[in-house]
Write a structure and sequence with these properties.
This protein has 339 residues and is of the alpha+beta class. The protein has a domain of 229 residues. The strands form 5 sheets. It has a 4-stranded antiparallel sheet with strand order 6-7-12-13. Strands 4-9-8 form a 3-stranded mixed sheet, with no helix packed on it. The chain has a 3-stranded mixed sheet with strand order 10-11-14, with no helix packed on it. It is globular and about 90 Å long.
Amino acid sequence: MRKNQPSSGFTLIELLVVVAIIAILIGILLPALGKARVAARMTQVASNLRTVAQGMTAYTADNQLFPPSYVYASSKFGTNWRLDQQLPSHPAAENGYVHWSYALFKDDGGTADDAFSSPSVLNGGAPRTNPGKRAEDWENEQKDDMNADVSSATAEDRQARRMAYSANAALIPRNKFYSDGSNTRQAKLVNASVVAGPARTILATEFAECNNWRSVFAGNNNEPGITISKSHRSITPFQGRSAGWDAFAETPRADGYSFRYPRLDQIRKADECGDSLIAAGQNVVAQHHPGESSHFVFVDSHVERLKVTETIAKRLWGERFYSMTGGDVGVLPPDINNQ
């Protein structure tokens, strides 16, 4: 008769203890892994923004001027455009836009296209206004300036395929190089040498993404159901003192301060995003990093992670509306802009 041999397996209780220990370890490690992923994404965003700013430094070294945010192309290919064709409406929508990102990467050795993307947002960035014929460059329900979809698209912008960042319109102006009789001002290109305090003047920041990039979409007045990406626009950080957010319709003021920073209580929330607006209709600054923060790259190429309200309180968008014509382009700080 054989003696009973001791069992070499685990008892049920031992297995349950092991499972419980594994569950506890997973519970401890998963948040740490999640934080590591967030940190890695933020590092990549900061690196990309720094690369973009370095490309801008190279551009201004060659050209002295910051590029415009966008211009109307004079043909379907290439970068040619004419200032006298920059009318209130696009004179040749089928030609698309030439965007400031293209000014940095169009030449050999320039800034890579993917430097304008971000791992923190949907599909790496907002689609171009006129994405062209690649389906992956479009978002749901998007139309282009010709009211086309991908199946019938003809226009294609010269712009990074996905745009996660928007420039400061005080340095890189929207295409308002004209007067249609109602505007009292026009935009102008900015000489990089006139910017006071490059280390304290924001060059660019992150777009907010929500609901398939609805944060940068705008409706077409003629067809309310049409949604068009406005990722080609820069962000206007200042208010006109007598015309609300419409800085381009501002009337000059005798005291030399026609513009103002918004009050902190005027930094509104975008619908369904929880992201802050700098200016109505001028696109949305993200706050999707820890502490409701975003990355901001400055003219000297350094990057800081800040809240939008901090950038307003510290007047980091500039002391003057450099890209606006007229001599009185000083900007009042937010604490006295109730005038």
